[in-house]
Amino acid sequence: MNPPRHLLQIEGLPPSEIAALLELAESYVLLNRSGQTERDLLHGRTLITLFFEDSTRTRTSFELAGKRLGADVITMSVATSSVNKGETLLDTAATLNAMHCDLLVVRHAQSGAPALLAQKVDAAVINAGDGTHEHPTQALLDALTICRHRGRLEGLVVAICGDVLHSRVARSNIHLLTSMGGHVRVVGPPTLIPPAIEKMGVEVFHDMRAGLAGADIVMALRLQKERMARGLVPSAREYFRFWGLDAERLAYAKSDALVMHPGPMNRGVEIDSAVADDPERSLIREQVEMGVAVRMAVLDTLSRRGLS
Questions:
Q1: Sheet harboring 103-108: ordered strands across?
Q2: What is the mean pLDDT of residues 220-239?
Q3: Is 60 exceeded by the pLDDT of residue 80?
Q4: Residues in contact with 23: Cβ distance below 8 Å, sequence separation at least 6, in sequence order
């Protein structure tokens, strides 16, 4: 029996694998909306979620995905676990191996932590966000949301706006969208755009009007103050004045451009409530729904044959 393989990042994942995951996820969207579930697919399998950083959407949707597929789902509370008492990541890996876990979902503040665990545990490891590195399932659910409304990724212009420097979501989306033929722009103040990001195949804009012009999709990013050094941005009010996504700035994009945000949102900082809640333009709530379907597809795929 081949050892389980993992989903640690989008970078390097072949377009064919991305397309297969999106196709499977679409089937789970339809299944979930019908009220049916695949209760026996992961029967007898154990899924452990291990989140070293706070999360609501990601953790809950992974747990819901696991339960809908029939897995035994265990949530490890880091705040009350041995990890919080000084246990090393490698000690944690040994503990997880002793539990005979099949699927392990990990979020960690340090880039590379899930990859380290993947080398040490027998379970299939899924990266639920590591530092500023990647958040692969978020990019997959964003891609699924776009595909359901535009029918494709190839040729679309996607403007990713805001705190790109600290955003693992932005990095995963850039890898996925460029791999699938999309045109990606990053838009934000120079202090929040990574150096040499053009090497990832994106265009860089520091002006919202130019960056959003002709965009099909506008994705706002959360201002991650917890990861920032002081002085990178002015006050929240000033940031919104220059970089916040409101109706006036959205008008720079195509007339039918759609709005996305990975959440949680800082309303009035990176996005205006009227735009976030616009029933015609905003896909933000749908992104949450797509998250469950995508994570079901990932759990299904890894439990069957793994990913390269």
A1: 72-76, 46-51, 103-108, 124-130
A2: 72
A3: no
A4: none
- Residue predicted with more confidence, 244 or 88: 244
Nearest to 12 by CA among 306, 301, 297, 308: 308
CB-based contacts of 108, cutoff 8 Å, min separation 6? 52, 53, 114, 129, 130, 131
- Residue type at 300? D
The enclosing H or E element of 285 equals: helix 284-304
3: enclosing H helix or E strand = none
pTM: 0.94
- C-alpha gyration radius of the chain: 19
Q: Cα 301 vs. chain centroid, distance in angstroms?
A: 18
**Could you give the residue ranges of the DSSP H alpha helices within 151-207?**
168-179
3-state secondary structure of 127: strand
* pLDDT tens column, 112-158: 999 999 999 999 999 999 999 999 999 999 999 999 999 999 999 99
Determine the pLDDT at residue 255.
98
Instruction: Kindly state the tokens that stand for 32.
Output: 């979930």
Distance CA 265, CA 47 (A): 28
- Antiparallel, parallel or unpaired: β 157-161 and 72-76: unpaired
Query: Which runs of E-coded beta strand occur in the chain?
Result: 46-51, 72-76, 103-108, 124-130, 157-161, 183-187, 203-205, 217-220, 258-260
pLDDT recorded at residue 40 = 86
